[in-house]
């Protein structure tokens, strides 16, 4: 009786192993670095970001200058003049913060620009990954460059070069 239970358990284990999921991994960082259009788009985003950052910093420096002038002239001002200057400084600071939010906020111009430049590249990569997974019958594909905790993975599971070949960027 024990032999039969053991044999059934062994056969069940073998059947389970035959139906185990197939998986592979990709390194999205590696793939992106090897696609020239990604590097071009990334450089373009950096230039736009620097330009907008300097514009925002210029507005904030203007606010600082107004505040310093206000502090030096404070003793010579009437209460009405003080209030008017304070309101002017606060309004300029709010405008600078609003400009910063419109450029760098969660729905800001930089986000929209990044989306328009990067999404087509990412979509192309994901389509290539899906195609390879269908060809190889893969059930799961991990990204080893993400925050996922992969302690070790054998290099033969890495299909990053195949994705690059599928996209036409072979090494």
Structure description:
There is one protein chain. The protein has 171 residues and is mainly α. The protein has helices spanning 2-18, 28-33, 36-73, 79-104, 109-136, 160-167, and strands spanning 23-26, 140-143. Strands 1-2 form a two-stranded parallel ribbon. The chain has one domain (21-167).
How are the secondary structure elements laid out?
Elements: H1 2-18, E1 23-26, H2 28-33, H3 36-73, H4 79-104, H5 109-136, E2 140-143, H6 160-167
Parallel strand pairs: 1-2
Helix pairs in contact: 3-4, 3-5, 5-6
Distance between the termini: 59 Å
> Could you tell me the strand content as a percent range?
under 5%
**Average pLDDT reading:** 83
- Tally of DSSP β-strands: 2
The largest sheet has its strands arranged as 1-2
Which structural category do the helix and sheet elements fall into?
mainly alpha
Helix content: over 70%
**What can be said about the biggest beta sheet?**
2 strands, parallel
Spatial extent as radius of gyration: 29 Å
Given the structure, what is the number of helices? Answer: 6
Number of domains: 1
The helix/strand series, from N terminus to C terminus, equals HEHHHHEH
Please mark out the parts with pLDDT under 50 across 5 or more consecutive residues, or reply none.
Answer: none
Shape: elongated
Characteristics of this structure?
single chain; 171 residues; mainly alpha
């Amino acid at each position: 009786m024990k032999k039969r239970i053991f044999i059934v358990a062994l056969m069940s284990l073998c059947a389970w192993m035959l139906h185990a999921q197939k998986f592979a991994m990709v390194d999205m960082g590696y793939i992106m670095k090897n696609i020239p259009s990604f590097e071009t788009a990334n450089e373009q985003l950096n230039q736009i970001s620097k330009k907008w950052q300097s514009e925002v910093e210029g507005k904030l420096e203007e606010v600082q200058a107004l505040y310093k002038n206000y502090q030096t002239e404070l003793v010579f001002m009437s209460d009405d003049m003080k209030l008017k200057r304070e309101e002017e400084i606060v309004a300029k600071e709010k405008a600078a913060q609003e400009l910063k939010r419109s450029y760098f906020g969660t729905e800001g111009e930089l986000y929209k620009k990044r989306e328009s430049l990067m999404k087509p590249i990412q979509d192309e990569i994901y389509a290539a990954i899906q195609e390879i997974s269908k060809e190889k019958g893969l059930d799961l594909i991990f990204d080893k460059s993400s925050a996922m905790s992969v302690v070790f993975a054998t290099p033969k599971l890495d299909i990053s070069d195949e994705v690059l070949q599928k996209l036409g960027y072979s090494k």
